Amino acid sequence: MLEIYKDLSWLPEIPKDLSDSFSDLMKTADIELISKISQYKLNDSQAKRMHDRFLEINESPKSKKNKDGIKLLILSSNTFDFIISKLFVSALRNGFLLDISLLPFGNIVSLLSQKIENNELKEFDYVLLSLDYKGLNIVDDFDDNGKDIFTNAINEINSIKNLVNDQLNATLIVQSIVKSTESIFGNLEIHLTATRNKIIHEINRELLQITLDSNILFFDIEETANKVGLLNWLDPRMYYWAKLPFSSNYSGIYSSKLINLIISDRGLSKKLLVLDLDNTLWGGVIGDDGLDGIKASIGDPKGESFLNFQEYCKRLQSRGIILAVCSKNSPENAVLPFRENLDMVLKEDDFAVIKANWSNKADNIREIANELNLGLDSIVFIDDNPTERNLVREFLPQVSVPEVPVDISYYPEIISAAGYFESVRFSKDDVRRAEDYSVNKKRVALKTGSTDISEYLSSLEMQAEMSEVSVSNLTRPVQLILKTNQFNLSNKRRTEKEIEKLINDPRFTIFQFRLQDKFADNGIVSVVIIERKEDTIFLDTWVMSCRVFGRTLEFYVFNEILKLAKELEIKKIFAEHRRSDKNNLVLDALKSLNFKGIDKNKDLSLWEFNPVNCLEVPFHIDTTSLD
Fold first, then answer.
1. Angle of helix 496-503 relative to helix 475-483, nearest 10 degrees?
2. What is the torsion angle, in degrees rounded to the nearest 10, for the CA atoms of residue 253, residue 255, residue 260 and residue 262?
3. What percent of the chain has a predicted confidence (pLDDT) above 90?
4. In a 10 Å sphere around its CB, with 0-12 CB exposed, 13-18 middle and 19+ buried, how is residue 524 labelled?
């Protein structure tokens, strides 16, 4: 399994024709072509050439400067130049450009203070703090049980944290400290308070606590180092010769892990896991081998490996990841093992959608995305068949399709290492999301049996309530603002730190909306940020989960906005729609709410509404308080 982390085994090998012509391809100015090549497994020299080519293109007078890139500043007690190209390619592979700056390694507090004082640091989105035990001077301390060593290390980290928060206004990423391989006590090493490794352990616990109580992100690289083994991760010779913090063999996985953390913070982690069936969730082919012939039974080694993968998928679902099936099978055969095999960990109801037919899988995945109102870029597809994987990659390049080995036993580790479902925030609403998608089949059945849409909506017995967002209940609103693509008025991706500032600004009011029906509690599914400007209000942000489209929640939300407008004697309500490839749905909502377009262009349009003497918009939701 070491190769998974060393070689990034989930990435497809670069085709021979592309590999052979790589040098010529890197002379192109076609950014889309270069980005496409970044999806493959690249060696160090290829990654460096790709990065260098992007820098050349960017420095060209004819180039259009990318305003959507992410700016990262790295603060480290070691050399980081060796990893820059891999970081860049990893970001490119995930759809964004990474502009990386390095502070020279040394006394970070002193250097950072000096650079800030001299105005030498531009704006950054993220600042990575990567320290090791040598940089923090963590040593055995048998005289004081490590108290001073611990306190000095935490104080230094807090000093850097305060500088970043107060002066750079960036999100700080604090990396965990990797333990030493050197032991002076053997088995007792980690248990004695005064040893270096025990002090490192306590510092990491404190760092985690600091990040949980703030907007800081915790980058637990120690977890990865432990997986591959400290003796593999650390390279003492290269540390002393070049001050490399870890072996260059793992620069790829380090880069991937860090980029996944940033992606998660921006609300772009994957949401849906689409699974093949034959030789993926069970061994064999159900249509040929029959129920008794497939491998998915306790007591059978091969069968248990498939059940273990099912358990991993079930665990993902339990934390909010949606599951679906895409299989070339008859519908009857596809569901048979879920219904008849008592050893199966996954059951039929665990899947939000089951597509079992003989159509090509790219079309089926596209239909699954449409049914669930999810973007293709939020999907991971798992299939044992390389032909099917390549077909989906070709026709649906937005979908993540990992390479998987022949042995199913390694599937969980492949998906885990790839980091598709990285999370920096977790709430009960995450769990509700997966449950709600699963029970949505009942809503579909109810809608099919209804004679008209009004009857259907009334039969859902929906209830909703509005509450104000505060610092104590930020998690879910921030998730919605960062993750929502389709019903997103302004496309402003506000961070937790930004939302906190707005909460403390008297000009702004932030509301969240919860919805439930007779089938499930959807949790918080909409957020509105309102800015008051004299006798007008401006809808700064309005997002709504795709799970509740078509249930008139937008009318309920707008009626609550109207109530506020009347209380404040507001004369005009303004909304600015910033167009993306996915959010035209909001334009339809504005029109149905009788907003009038007053300033329109291709990407940005301003809309207004006169709340004076207007009537409530009808909706099918009970507004009594929820339990």
1. 120
2. 160
3. 56
4. buried
Question: Could you tell me if 380 and 420 are in contact, meaning their C-beta atoms sit under 8 angstroms apart?
Answer: yes
Phi, psi of 528, deg, nearest 5 = -130, 130
Query: Residue 142: CA atoms inside 13 Å, Cβ hemisphere, count?
Result: 3
Q: Give 148's contacts (C-beta < 8 A, 6+ positions apart).
A: 141
Structure token pair of residue 572: 């005009």
**CA dihedral over 311, 317, 321, 324, signed as positive or negative:** positive
**Taking the chain, what is the end-to-end CA distance rounded to the nearest angstrom?**
48
> Of all helices (H) and strands (E), which one includes residue 130?
strand 126-130
List CB contacts of 236: < 8 A, sequence separation 6 or more. Answer: none
CA distance 474 to 496: 7
Q: Of 129-138, 153-162, 211-220, 533-542, where does mean pLDDT reach its minimum?
A: 211-220
Instruction: Give the DSSP H/E element, type plus range, for residue 259.
Output: helix 251-265
3-state secondary structure of 357: strand
Report the percent of the chain where pLDDT is more than 70: 97
Q: Let me know: does 90 contact 256? Beta carbons within 8 Å.
A: yes
3-state class (DSSP) for residue 572 = strand
**How far apart (Å, rounded) are the C-alpha atoms in residues 586 and 484?**
12
| Selection from 42, 73, 17, 62 nearest residue 262 by Cα | 73
Quote the CA–CA distance of 152 and 275 in Å, as a whole number.
50
- pTM for this predicted structure: 0.85
Q: Sheet holding 353-357: strands in order across? A: 353-357, 322-328, 272-275, 379-382
Residue type, 94: N
SS3 annotation, 150-179: HHHHHHHHHHHHHHHHHHHCCEEEEECCCC
Is residue 127 within 8 A of residue 173, CB to CB? The reply is: yes
Amino acid identity for residue 68 in this structure:
D
User: Cα(124)–Cα(289) distance, rounded to whole angstroms?
Assistant: 57
Please report the pLDDT score of residue 119 as a whole number: 85
Helix (H/G/I), strand (E/B), else coil: 394: helix
Q: Which residues contact 552 (CB under 8 A, 6 or more apart)?
A: 457, 618, 619, 620, 621
Q: Rounded to an integer, what distance in angstroms lies between the CA atom of residue 249 and that of residue 599?
A: 54
Check: CB of residue 270 under 8 Å from CB of residue 421.
yes
Q: How far is 336 from 15, CA to CA, in rounded Å?
A: 39
Asked if pLDDT for residue 158 goes beyond 60, the answer is yes
User: What's the CA angle centered on 184, arms 180 and 189, to 5 degrees?
Assistant: 70
Q: What is the pLDDT of residue 426?
A: 80
Q: Is 8 left (phi over 0), alpha (psi -120 to 50) or beta?
A: left
Which run of H or E residues covers position 463?
Answer: strand 463-468
Burial of 298 (0-12, 13-18, 19+ CB in 10 A): exposed
Contact criterion met (CB below 8 Å) for 522 and 516? yes
Strand stretches in 338-397, DSSP E:
353-357, 379-382
HSE at residue 409, side-chain half, CA atoms within 13 A, is: 5
Which strand (E) or helix (H) includes residue 544? Answer: strand 536-544
How big is the CA angle at 210 (ends 204 and 216), to the nearest 5 degrees?
Answer: 105
Token reading at 539: 């809808």
Give the whole-angstrom CA distance, residue 282 versus residue 340: 13
